[in-house]
Amino acid sequence: MAPFALSKTAAELMIASGFGRLIMISSIQGLLGRRGDAAYITAKGGMHALTRALTAEYGRFGVTCNAIAPCTFATETNAETLANPAALALAKQRTFFGQPHENAGSAVFLAYDAAAYGTGAILPVDGGWSATL
Q: How far apart are CA 103 and CA 76, in angstroms?
């Protein structure tokens, strides 16, 4: 409920000014499936659906809505995964772990005036994870 409620409140302020950028942070897990993680995957898929719904709802007012779908970044939250040799080896077969600063550029791009026509998009920022088998 929080992303919906916060987006609605923010959009009302943006509509008043005739301009705005709603940028969701979801996960590539909303695009892909994985055993044992149905609740998380469903929540992230819901964020993607919310992104599209908000695009339809607020686009006519000059408010765009996009989502960034990151993969695993080297953060405290993922310390257990990064310390697990088997998980690390599996991840390195497909891609690499991102550094937190590598996610920031996506938000800057989506907020930039030059990206104003792009709305309703889910932007994977995953080191190629969703593009490889």
A: 15
